[in-house]
Amino acid sequence: MARLVPVEDPADPRLADYVDLRDTALRKSLEAAHGMFIAEGEKVVRRAVDAGYEVRSLLMAERWLDGLSDVLAAADDVPCYVVSDDVAERVTGFHVHRGALASMLRRPLPSLDDVLADASRVVVLEDVVDHTNVGAIMRAAAGLGADAVLLSPRCADPLYRRSVKVSMGAVFALPWTRVEDWYEALPRLRAAGFRTVALTLAADAVDLADVPAAARTALVLGSEGPGLSRRWQATADVRARIPMRAGIDSLNVASAAAVACYALWS
Asked: Which parts of the chain fold into alpha helices (H)?
């Protein structure tokens, strides 16, 4: 059973895991140093626990205790800091309207080979740096048929609080990993039997609806703004585009990912 610990001072050092949750630079440093991440909201906390992530601590207002009573009962001797709404806002930097926060321990990322072993439909992200977009792509990929997601070294962190929140916990259900040797990512996908489909605005790209089915497909999306690197565009097996009406040249990368997943795998 979790230990209920009332805290009235927002400067209490025991609340350090929850300080300034909107400060991206601070959170990157803090979470990397402690090997943790923050789950926000009852559903997301529950999904993280169900996925096997270990709880470091919880922070919530008293009125939310009943809603997570089963999680608290299973969190053996983990501190649950019970605070007022004012204290929560002063610690985190925003109004915690979803009621509950949990500091969770990260797990080592799986290898690329392990992620691809049982996958036939993979989404590959190159330098997608916005946490909201990464979370939305993970949610769309999980809901529309993808088996796994691969990220370049510069992609935003799927376990950053905003990513987790936007994904509604899909980051816990969908296998993913970073590919540190990005130059070798394409050859390794080919060696594993994947046909790569690069989403691009290139004039000679084929209509996404005309891409033939394949046993193993990797959908590749590039960064917000610049899009895919020249190397990925030039060496992908298929270059495809989403046909757009006149006057609109592109979709947000998360919207494009959802459309492409549906078109390829529905």
From this structure: 24-34, 42-50, 69-74, 85-92, 112-117, 131-143, 161-167, 170-173, 185-191, 230-235, 253-265
User: Tell me: the pLDDT tens digits for 217-237?
Assistant: 999 999 988 899 999 999 999
Residue given tokens 């005309």 in the structure block? 210
Distance of alpha carbon 30 from alpha carbon 32, whole angstroms: 6
Report residue 229: phi and psi, to 5°: -65, 160
Residue 91 near residue 60 (C-beta atoms within 8 A): no
Q: Can you spell out the DSSP letters for 34-49?
A: HTEEEEESHHHHHHHH
First CA to last CA distance, the chain: 43
pTM over 0.90: yes
Structure confidence by residue, pLDDT tens digits, 105-164: 999 999 999 999 999 999 999 999 999 999 999 999 999 999 999 999 999 999 999 999
Domains of the chain from N-terminus onward? 3-105 (3.30.1330.30), 112-265 (3.40.1280.10)
Rounded to whole angstroms, what are the CA distances from 204 to 147, 198, 201, 234, 239? 29, 12, 9, 12, 8
Is the four-CA dihedral 113, 126, 207, 256 of positive or negative sign?
positive
Amino acid at 28: K
> What residue type is assigned to position 124 of the chain?
V
Question: Whose structure tokens read 């549906």?
Answer: 262
